[in-house]
Amino acid sequence: MATEEWGVGLAAPIEVAELVREHGGAADERVKGRVVRRLVAAEHASREDDLAVVTSVRWAAAASSSPAALLCQADVAARCPEGRRWVHPHAMYVVARLMTEPAPPAGVDARAWVDPGAVVDPSATVGARAVVLAGARVGAGSVVGEGAVLYGGVRLGARVVIGPLAVVGRPGFGWTAGPLGQLVRIPQRGGVVVEDDVEIGALATVDAGTLGPTVLRRGVKLDAHVHVGHNVTVGEDTLVAAQAGFAGSARIGPRVLVGGQVGVTDHAVVGEGARIAAKSGVIGDVAKGSVVAGFPAVPKASWLRAWAKLLGGQRRK
Hints:
The chain contains 5 helices and 36 strands. With 317 residues, it is an alpha/beta fold. The model has no long low-confidence stretch (mean pLDDT 94).
């Protein structure tokens, strides 16, 4: 049985020296003239015309045993064999540039449904079986993935990407008790504002605000299965990993990193540049630039010390 080869073909065969001129970094003299045709992970490198990516010491051995040219992150270059290295301080940025595909053709797929009361920029793309309801607006160059739903009151900026089956602008989870104790739904009429260059992952949900909009600021990236509750604001360039959720009216600052399965309580404020470890439960404010973990979320160093003490006590028993 033939061995399957993994990797991504480059747009055209190209010398390493030309890649260096275009993207920067420094290459060993012996590798500059080599022509590469395929970009591969280090463990899948098998040919001399491969360009293997080495961004961690754990892949250095695999790369060293291959015949490929090596695109090495600067801090691991010493672990890569001399003579085959193209060293770059931002290797994955180079990978992203080399793998970028042309934008899908603009237009509305014949299998999508766009209400006549919606506004879709001519340069935007709406995928098969997507639904864009009356009152929604889709900005220039944006992409609405297959099966996604945009409710009225949604405003997408430019170059926004909505993943397959994501739902944006549905009524938020708002209820109040009536005079007899019965639950009464609070209408959620505030809509959603999604600024430029935001990406919302597959099966994610972003709820409409109550009186004002739920807001995703410029450059926010949401992974799959993320939930953003009503009236939440997520700041510029924040990254949110899969299955995280923000309860109503939470405020997430710019450039925050949120790990997978994190939960943030309603009305909490997370400061700029904070980092929240995976599976943390945030039940109060998080200071600017801090790193927290656990439930309830506390400074990560304190959380690790507490677990070390607990586990150490169990061993003594």
